[in-house]
Amino acid sequence: MEKRKSKLIKVGKVNIGAGNPIVVQGMTKTDTEDVTATVKQIQQLERAGAKMVRVAVPTARAAKAISQIKDKVEVPLIADIHFNYKLALEAIERGIDKVRINPGNISKKEILSIADRAEKEGMPLRVGVNEGSLQKKLDQKIKTQGNNPQIIAKAMVESALETVRLLEENGFLNIIISLKSHDVFASIFSYQLIAKKTIYPLHLGVTAAGPPPQGVVKASIGIGTLLAQGIGDTIRVSLTADPVEEVRIAYEILHCLNLYKETPLLISCPTCGRCKVDMFSIVNDVLLGIEDIKIPLKVAIMGCEVNGPAEAKRADIGVVCGKREAILFKKGKVVRKIKEKEVAKVLLDCIRNY
Ligand code: SF4
């Protein structure tokens, strides 16, 4: 898979685009005016692996709170601005690292005021188009041309490119683009379309995806399809759930596409009538045991000799279960037999000592 070429954009200390690893973003769900709660949630997101965190800035008090929040956290912060461009100016004044603007609810003149201030700070803007808040003329276009994913995608791309051109004509080139729809196809089509038309980094996401498991599946299909085609530079998973869960799922998507390799990848069979051990308990114990382990290796746990030996041999560490026992493999070679009740412990010891 060839990765789409994109321009390097810096958000604080984080590099986005130009072949850098895909950056996982988080978003707080606290009231930004509540500095204590917001700092606590940002720190939780940092611990979960978020490299940048977006905060909503709906009021002047929220904008003013940014300087206090910034003092207590490490990750770059992004201000999410809608309707009121003055909040963006205040957020920049308070040390925010990037501003997300929505071309659907901020005028061109106001966008240019924000860009002018951002340019002085060397700060990027995200042109964040959302299907739910498109400009009226584009909403109308969707209605008249037929409300289908292709039409929605074209309208979102038109909205983004119009704003990007406006910024470029005024000398502002420090841009990241996002095009979010709750519809998986509209999201995929819009990013595929814009990927051919610009060199700016793309922030991927499927918006308002809902609670798990639906939201997880929508995000995985939408973001995963695009990443698998080499499109996308930074991602955020949107779930009606704890924001830490969003970051975890984002990493799972990257992990499954081999775009993040710092933790163990588990290969385990679904089990069937041939399985003669309690696989669910074994896998669960191993899963809990590897939660904090940062070693890039493949671990196979297979229920029987049908597919087991091949998978276990190809993995770095593997077990093939039989009747109340299992055979341990390391780097493709049989090591020894182990009893069923020792499987999880032996695997975890092997992983820690790898
Ligand atoms: S590996 Fe064996 S136990 Fe597991 S699903 Fe396949 S046939 Fe069933």
Keywords:
354 residues; alpha/beta; Sulfite Reductase Hemoprotein, domain 1; 2 domains; eight-stranded parallel beta barrel; five-stranded mixed β-sheet; 12 helices; 42% helix; binds iron/sulfur cluster
Topology:
Layout: E1 9-11, E2 14-16, E3 23-27, H1 35-48, E4 52-56, H2 60-72, E5 77-80, H3 85-93, E6 98-101, H4 108-121, E7 125-130, H5 136-145, H6 149-169, E8 175-180, H7 184-195, E9 202-204, H8 214-228, E10 234-235, H9 243-256, E11 265-268, H10 279-289, E12 298-302, H11 308-314, E13 317-321, E14 325-330, E15 333-339, H12 343-352
Parallel strand pairs: 3-4, 3-10, 4-5, 5-6, 6-7, 7-8, 8-9, 9-10, 11-12, 12-13
Antiparallel strand pairs: 1-2, 13-14, 14-15
Helix pairs in contact: 1-2, 1-9, 2-3, 3-4, 5-6, 6-7, 7-8, 8-9, 10-12
Succession of helices and strands: EEEHEHEHEHEHHEHEHEHEHEHEEEH
CATH topology of the largest domain: TIM Barrel
Shape estimate:
elongated
The end-to-end span amounts to 30 Å
| Secondary structure category | alpha/beta
How many DSSP helices?
A: 12
Q: Tell me what portion of residues adopts beta-strand conformation.
A: 15-25%
Q: Briefly, what CATH class of the largest domain?
A: Alpha Beta
Strand order of the largest sheet: 3-4-5-6-7-8-9-10
What is the strand tally? 15
Mean model confidence by pLDDT: 96
Radius of gyration using CA atoms only: 23 Å
User: Tell me about the biggest sheet?
Assistant: 8 strands, parallel, barrel
Ligands present: iron/sulfur cluster
The name of the CATH architecture of the largest domain is Alpha-Beta Barrel
